[in-house]
Structures
1.
Amino acid sequence: MKITFKLYATLTDYLPPQARSDNRLELDVEPGATIADVVAPFNLPMKLVHLVLVNGVYVPPEARASHRLQEGDVLAIWPPIAGG
């Protein structure tokens, strides 16, 4: 099934070079894939996987290993952001 995977801020460095300009990648994933399944091949440090949204809805850390994605979902991830 197809989903859109989006990484923001410093996490875009984990995308393939051709996907970094618009921070998105169209992926084919197995039916029933979880957020954790999608993130794993990109070797994102889990401490940098801070804000996770599926179709604009927040997914808390305890649900990321079990939340199953659906055809057409948009998975977006942001790192922790410090400001001041």
2.
Amino acid sequence: MIKLGVPSKGRLMKETFEWFAERGVQLSKSGSDREYVGRVEGVDGVELVLLSAGEIPRELAAGRIHLGVTGTDLVHEKLANWADAVAPVAQMGFGFADLIIAVPACWRDVTCLHDLDAVAARFRADHGFRLRIATKYHRLVRQFLTLQGVADYQLVDSQGATEGAVKNETAEAIADITSTGATIAANHLRILEDGLVLKSQATLWKSRNAGGDCGPLIRKIGAQ
């Protein structure tokens, strides 16, 4: 039995169900909204597994599900060597988001990463600790800033509304996902000109560590 993992709630679940339905595979959630049981119609030998989008990369890497729908950002963040564990089957055309770095809008002279590096050095000299960047994406942001030569910063974990970290004085800058930039602007932040870390969208991934034949489902949806 092939296990297909999809997000268990919200807009991402709805759009995933619609995407598969357009390709002749009907996914549905059984029971109440509190139950995580689902059905698959239109192709044999497939079981629907409802998970949080954040759980799906690890379940794929462990081989406990064969296929899964989640964002590029979550796969790259949660799996250190993601290409060894999963392979993209199809980009799904929804769930678009950019992982970006943003600074307070009042920092008028800070427009790029070079400026951020200079400010970070001055900040540490003035305050005795490193400039704080709030994010949920520690692996991706650290890799990106290292490649760009930015130093003298520290990443602080944000599991709530990251955009509010600067206003709440728990960070001096943020790294977060955005689809339109409206929330960033509403919190008086500005995206750095070269601050795009990763472009993400919902993607169907295949586990490299699970056995079984995913071919019938992949062919049904026209991805092979």
3.
Amino acid sequence: MNLKSLTLLLTAAAVPQVVVAGPCLYAICQAGCIGLVVTCYAGAGFTLVVAPPLAGPAVIACNVAFGGCTLACAALMFAPTP
């Protein structure tokens, strides 16, 4: 091994590596969001499948919260995990 190769190898080893947890962390986050929205619907007296005319303010609030939760999870797809 020449000096240039050794220098490159040592430099790469010394630089902190960043791993993207993305898909696994995203799946865990989504499972949490689903659990929360099912609980929210149950608290409002509904199941997760509701016909639109029956969707009252509580169900709409659950849907808005679920949308926010899933949006936050989407950001985790690219979050670096040291």
4.
Amino acid sequence: MDLFLPNMLSATVTVLKIFFLTILFSIPLGFIVALARRSKYKFISVPVRIYQLIFRGTPLMLQLFFFMYGPYYIFDSSLDRFVACILAFTVNYAAYFGEIFRGGIASIPKGQYEAAKVLGYTKFQTFMRIILPQVIKQVIPATGNELMTLVKDTSLAQVISVVELFRVASAAGSKYFSTVPIIVAAVFYLVMNTVVEISFKLIEKKFDYYKN
């Protein structure tokens, strides 16, 4: 039975790949979504709202199926399973991050924009030097919660046959008629989320100098 552990460690690497690649692509995309949502032009803000409604309002599992099998029916070609997985996770989490970041930007008093303009800052300088650091501080707790959810959501990748931790644990549990692999997988997820929580506590402490 101890043979399942190396497979679980290998599957954990897949979980980490999904986790970090999703962060790499979805957080920058989330900022773009947030800015687009705040656009005064309806032809920009309305499609973005619809996108967020769709990807926040439908299950991630269905989105995984869409990116895995949709291209075959639409374009008569298929994506690699792992690529489809990353695309689904990215657009899903970007929709959530976009709303988090939008709320963070909206929480900054308008007086700060006006004060920066009086001091001679450009809009870009105002955003990068004054607004963005405060927004980051505001969104740290919500972003941390989303990333802890992301760790757990990686288990959904199994529905398109991506060999990740939960899939391996389930297969081992069925093979050996034991709950031990599931318990070990739970410990793995718990350890990963503990690391995420500690990391965000440290980040939050670093931004403590931005007092509200």
